[in-house]
Design a protein that fits this description.
elongated; alpha+beta; 495 residues
């Protein structure tokens, strides 16, 4: 009971610290802390000459950080007397220096008596956030053999359950993934088969940063097994993998490079208002089996619905897929006409129309995959670790946002027609310009005498007799000239 009260108090303190200081996140990068357990339970990881603990921490730090990230290296056990936990081993920009800061790290002891230190996970997390992090958002990495024994408490299983509850229920811890690793070590006092690596995001900026780190792929070169999701279990439950478009041979479906975006390539001359997509619905909830759930979907910002059939999921293993048919309407009003300025500006290339599909699961029931549970029990015998992956009863729904990109290929014909019209206009203007500068010789009868005059387009000429008296005036447009004025007592006509 006392331990639960302490856990509740720690959770409340974390929430208060986050609410009061979340605005102080560093703009240049995300701060990260690497906490390495060095209590008595970790003895084989420090005494076995083949242990890869320190090398692993250094490699993870290098893969997970950028040079702009503020990085802290800490060792943790449990504070006792003069012994303080966690202890700061070093800090700097980026993770390159973490391995060197761990080089001399050994097992922690309680005090002058020489007894090996106990372990307190909650203390390590709370003091890291309120200490080096100064209650601002950041990622806490924990390297542990998963034995939590505050004050030499033999009930390590119950203490772990308390820690797992904290990870699930504390709202300021926005994302948590874990990596169970096989690392057999044999010490003088104990032996171990596995090591657990936790990544805890404190605050929403850290959650977004952790998601980005996992997506970049550098970390997967060090931690080769996929991360097990602990929190959140109400987001990004599934993805849709397109296979073919059933109702049109002119629409082609594929998956984008990010592994999430559905890409539809459409010929503008063969648009179909409704797309019927044959696809797979894939369970992204590693390591959970979706025992049962109901699927519902919609297009964000569109009135038109998005139908998924069948709309039931049953016994879908992590990473497995079930065949579905997805039907939705293209927003025809938003698709530019081939004669529109946007399409013409594309010069016969593609016009992109980004959309988003919201896919939700309701009445959701999750269970830990049996094969994953067996692996955990082998690596951490006697630990109630399966309970860590039991989602809270309150989580019965999840939401996934799936980007949808419509790439519309426009024909060159409108561009060629417009270019041809422009070219014809230019040639006409040039011809007009040439014609307007050329004078033509015309014959006129002035007072019965035939004369010849030179006249350019859009010009006029005054006709006079041999004595310089005014007879009249001719004026020309593009064609032949015409008599526009005849002086009184004179005659003027075109011959």
């Amino acid at each position: 009971m006392k331990a639960r009260v302490l856990i509740a108090a720690g959770a409340a303190f974390l929430a208060f610290a986050f609410a009061s200081a979340s605005a102080s996140v560093q703009a240049a990068g995300i701060q990260q802390a690497f906490l390495v357990q060095n209590s008595g339970w970790m003895e084989p990881f420090y005494t076995d000459e083949h242990s890869q603990l320190k090398a692993l921490v250094g490699a993870v730090a290098q893969a997970a950080t950028n040079p702009s990230d503020k990085v802290y290296t800490l060792a943790f056990s449990q504070s006792s007397g003069a012994h303080v936990s966690p202890s700061l081993l070093g800090q700097g920009q980026g993770g390159a220096g973490v391995a060197g800061q761990l080089a001399s790290l050994g097992l922690a002891r309680k005090g002058a008596g020489g007894a090996l230190a106990d372990t307190d996970f909650q203390e390590a997390v709370t003091k890291t956030i309120t200490g080096p992090f100064q209650s601002a958002s950041g990622i806490v990495w924990i390297f542990t053999n998963n034995k939590n024994s505050p004050n030499n408490d033999s009930q390590t299983a119950e203490r772990n359950r308390d820690f797992y509850r904290l990870l699930h229920l504390e709202p300021s811890i926005t994302k948590t993934v874990v990596f169970p690793l096989r690392m057999p070590v044999q010490g003088k006092l104990y032996s171990a088969k596995g090591l657990m690596v936790y990544a805890l995001a404190y605050g929403q900026p850290a959650s977004e940063a952790l998601t980005r780190i996992l997506a970049e792929g550098r970390l997967s070169q060090v931690l080769t097994r996929p991360p097990a999701r602990l929190k959140p279990v109400d987001q990004d439950a599934v993805r849709i993998v397109p296979q073919s478009v059933k109702n049109s041979a002119n629409v082609h479906a594929s998956l984008g490079r990010d592994g999430r975006t559905i890409v539809l390539d459409v010929d503008a001359a063969n648009l179909v208002p409704q797309v019927v997509l044959q696809a797979s619905l894939q369970n992204m909830f590693f390591p959970y089996v979706i025992d049962s759930a109901r699927v519902h979907a919609s297009l964000a910002g569109q009135n038109a619905p998005l139908h998924v059939a069948p709309d039931q999921i049953r016994q879908l293993q992590p990473g497995a897929s079930q065949s579905v048919q997805v039907q939705f309407a293209l927003p025809m009003a938003q698709i530019p006409s081939p004669w529109s300025a946007q399409a013409i500006a594309a010069m016969g290339k593609q016009v992109l129309l980004p959309m988003q599909a919201q896919v939700g699961l309701s009445e959701q029931r999750l269970a830990l995959a049996s094969s994953f549970g067996k692996d955990l029990q082998e690596l951490f015998p006697g630990d109630p670790i399966s309970g860590m992956f039991t989602p809270p009863d309150s989580v019965r729904a999840s939401q996934a946002t799936i980007p949808l990109l419509v790439r519309i290929q426009y024909p060159l014909l409108p561009v060629l027609v417009i270019l041809g019209g422009v070219l014809a206009l230019v040639l006409g203007l040039l011809a007009l310009g040439l014609v307007s500068t050329r004078a033509t010789r015309y014959k006129v009868m002035a007072d019965g005498v035939q004369r010849q005059v030179l006249l350019k387009p859009f010009k006029s000429v005054q006709i006079r007799d041999d004595d310089g008296r005014d007879i009249g005036e001719l004026k020309r447009g593009l064609g032949k000239p015409s008599v526009v004025r005849v002086a009184e007592g004179h005659a003027l006509t075109l011959a």
